[in-house]
Amino acid sequence: MADRSKSLKANMAGEFFVDATCINSGACRAVAPAIYAERHGQSYVQHQPTNDEERALALMASAACPAGSIGPSAEETDAAAIGLFPQKIADNVYYNGYNSPLSFGASSYLIQRSQGNVLIDSPRFEPALVRRLEQMGGVALMLLTHKDDVGEHERFAAHFGCKRIMHRSDLHRGLNAVEIPIEGVEPVRQEGDLLVIPVPGHTKGSICLLYGTFLFTGDHLAQNQNRTHPTAFNNHCWYSWKEQTASMKRLAAYDFEWILPGHGGRAYYPLNEMKQKMAECIAWMGSVEART
């Protein structure tokens, strides 16, 4: 629970605050970008809510925070967030909220499909979220983009009986029971409308999922708030920057308009503009070195 005595000095005075335990997952900024901003590697309250809609978003952001770093009370936050997650992004694609500290605060997503819902990476196994997922049709598949963001995958798999998809190169103790392992670097079609695209680089077994115009990228690709184009994380490249650059070039050949990452900013660009943004990203990657 957030501690007002540890409130960051950058916070605007008022009801909501971020304390010094913030791990800069970015979850609050994704949910309520008008309320929360980033400074010196942590989030802070840049604007206190002035109406019911803003206050609801501020409370949802608090519930999403994996470190419990946002006040006011946890009781009020939980009550306000019940029923509001998963939060619709567009069409039948949702953000789950309840980011998990076991996934370093990564965002998780849901695709609602008549042939079975898909969970991308793992949120916290919160009862309120689990009940909503049940109401929305459960979970048939769970795609794990890489080994860092698996969170509480075992609890979701056990509860919903869903099959898990993950690249074999990222399997390790505790993940050996994955039902659908992916191998190599060739894309793999799942159930017609799901395309699993291996993108080694951030980790050896990183994968993206392409569904229609939505690309779920894990920690391979995200919008950078300091640049006009999306980028990779050169300061968090655990396997190979050279391989990640090659993966990005292959990825750029696909058509997508949405980038939905585990960490970093989401992005939407019309297709032609996205093609240009990806070209800018690849050129930038060629100009920098990774810092691991």
CATH topology of the largest domain: Metallo-beta-lactamase, Chain A
| Extended strand count | 19
- Arrangement of strands in the largest sheet: 5-6-7-8-9-10-11
Total count of helical runs of at least 4 residues: 7
Identify the CATH architecture of the largest domain.
4-Layer Sandwich
CA-based shape: globular
Q: Any descriptors?
A:
292 residues, alpha+beta, Alpha-Beta Plaits, Metallo-beta-lactamase, Chain A, seven-stranded mixed β-sheet, six-stranded mixed β-sheet, 7 helices, 19 strands, 24% helix
Structure explained in plain terms:
- The protein has 2 domains: 1-81, Alpha-Beta Plaits (2-Layer Sandwich), CATH 3.30.70.20; 82-285, Ribonuclease Z/Hydroxyacylglutathione hydrolase-like (Metallo-beta-lactamase, Chain A), CATH 3.60.15.10.
- It has 292 residues and is an alpha+beta fold.
- The protein is built from 7 helices and 19 strands.
- The strands form 5 sheets. A 7-stranded mixed sheet has the order 5-6-7-8-9-10-11, with helices on one face.
- It is globular, with a radius of gyration of 18 Å.
- The chain has helices spanning 27-31, 52-64, 74-81, 127-135, 153-160, 241-251, 271-287, and strands at 17-18, 36-39, 42-45, 70-71, 87-90, 93-95, 109-111, 118-120, 141-143, 163-167, 180-182, 188-190, 194-198, 207-211, 214-218, 222-223, 230-231, 258-261, 267-268.
